[in-house]
Every structure is written in structure tokens, then in C-alpha cells.
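When time allows, look over one protein, given below as sequence and C-alpha cells. The question is which stretches look regular and which look disordered:
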Amino acid sequence: VQPQGSEEAKAFVHALLKRSMPQVDDGTIQDMLTRKAVVLEHYPKKRTKQKRKKTKGFTAKQRRELRLFAIEPEQQRYSIFLPLHELWKQYIRDLCHGLKPDMQPHMIQGKLLKADLHGAVVTVTKSKCPSYVGITGIILQEFKHVFKIITKEDKLKVVPKLNNVFSLEIDGFTSYIYGSKILLRASERSAKKFKLKGTIDL
């Protein structure tokens, strides 16, 4: 940097260099000005990254205590959930592209195994526990190991998946689901690959 000759210019350049290179003394700065060009250095302030706080959801225990998924007795009526069943039927028709008569049964079965079953009308057709056989109703909630079903008699039944076979019918198609093969949450079941092979095990 070459000063223009005025005292103001010299003072400005000196002050600028002093701010830019605070670790260099005045003598060294003057020597640098008289003998060579100066490359001004910039020391940016280090920014401290603020850690984002992850929002924590409720634990399973807290959900139970708050009764977030509880169905109150006054809401346990079959008629209330009939519109949900109609929505489910339309959802399955769209999922299977209309449920045409010429569709292969195994194609429909594969889609039903991955489909959301909330709203489906199911019947327990086989069970190792005879008291479950014949229970028919709309699935209100699906958990990893059980279905919660509301019957036409307005009774809420908790039916385990294990050792039970469920049937569901829509537009003339009847499908059988082995509960022991779907011991998964609904979200996990939608991503699982099922082997469509018959089995005699409950």
C-alpha cells in the first residue's frame, strides 16, 4: 500500500493495518509499508453453533396415563363407525384399481396384507380359543399384537392376532388373514414383504 502523501492518508492506512493485524507492532507495520506490499488479513469471529433441541414425544407410559388412544364408553357405538367403514371400502377399491372381477386373487391378497385395516369389517373364522370364533365388527385400532373391534352389539372387543384367522369381504372378494403372520404395527406391515403361501398353522 503506497500512501498518497498526505498525513491523513498515512494515519488512515496505519490505523487500518493496526486493526487488521493487531498482533503486529508499529515498527513492523512501518517496515512493511516502506519495503513491500501488504496483504490484509481478516480474522472472522467464530460463530458458536446453537444445538437444536429435539422435541420429544410422549412415552408409551405417558400415552397410557393421558388416555390418548382410549375410546370412551359413550363413543363405543357401531353406528358411529359405519362412515369409517365406507371410507375404508373406497380406499381399498382405489388401492386395487377398482376390484375388477378378472383380477388375480393373490394380487388382492397382497395389497390387503399391506393395507391400513382401520375401518375394515372382519370376522374371526378360526381360533385356538373357541370364544373368539364368530366375533364380527369394525376394526377401530390396530396394535402390534391385537385388534380392537366394535361389534354390532356396541361391544368393544380386544382380539389377539396370534392364533386367530380373520376373514374380510369386499365387493364379493373374501380374503383370509392369518393373525400370527401380521404381528406388526400397521406402519411396519405396510413396508414388509409377505410370502403368499398357504399355511395350516394358526
Helices lie at 7-20, 26-35, 60-66, 82-95, 105-114, 186-189. The longest strand covers residues 121-127. DSSP finds six helices and six strands in the chain. The chain has two domains: 8-41, 75-191.
